[in-house]
Amino acid sequence: MRCRRRFARSRGRHSGAQFTAAPGTAGSTTVIVIRHAETESSVGIVDPPLSPAGEARAALLARMFGDANVLGHVDAIYVSPALRSRLTAAPLAARLGISATVAPADDPRGLARRALREHSGGRVLIVGHSDTVPRIVAALSGNPKIPEIGDQEYGTMYIIAVPRIGNPNLLRLNY
């Protein structure tokens, strides 16, 4: 009986109340940050193309975020000038019918600000490199302790929800 009263009192107190999204999620921009996919390991090639494994990873990325008619599709893509970065994003961009924006790889903080400014409230994919991804994620999340990415680590994905007001939320996963 006591549980019912508490429940009834609780319901009565909140009757007619309107619930809104938590401050950390209202009006958030979602940024997905990945390293380019696996590359050919040919000696002497400065800007190698993707290997078959890299092409498969790029195709997976397109399947994950590439349906423009379904919740969760990407609104914008940023890539570095490197061929491997552009090829990683190409299947997704083609599937969505958008062009990837080429941005300098030497200003991760500036890229993070640009993505938030130009796509506020949207969903953005940034394809970087082993040395830029942690710095981009740190700039977006405010967390300076993002681990380095190993030379053979290609499947790490960071998803950062950056609200207009409040603290960013960070998720790290493998794909």
Note down, in words, how this protein is organized.
Helices cover 35% and strands 18% of the residues. It has helices spanning 2-14, 52-65, 83-96, 108-118, 133-141, and strands spanning 29-35, 76-79, 101-102, 123-128, 156-162, 169-174. It has a 6-stranded mixed sheet with strand order 3-2-4-1-5-6, sandwiched between helices. The N and C termini lie far apart (49 Å). It has one domain (23-174): 3-Layer(aba) Sandwich (Rossmann fold), CATH 3.40.50. It is of the alpha/beta class and 175 residues long. The protein is globular and about 50 Å long. The protein has 5 helices and 6 strands. Residues 1-25 have low confidence and may be disordered.
Q: In this structure, how is the largest beta sheet organized?
A: 6 strands, mixed
Give the domain tally: 1
What is the N-to-C succession of helices and strands? HEHEHEHEHEE
Number of strands: 6
CATH homologous superfamily identity = Phosphoglycerate mutase-like
CATH class category: Alpha Beta
Shape: globular
The third-level CATH topology is: Rossmann fold
Query: Segments where pLDDT lies below 50 for 5+ residues?
Result: 1-25
Ends apart, CA distance between termini: 49 Å
CATH architecture title: 3-Layer(aba) Sandwich
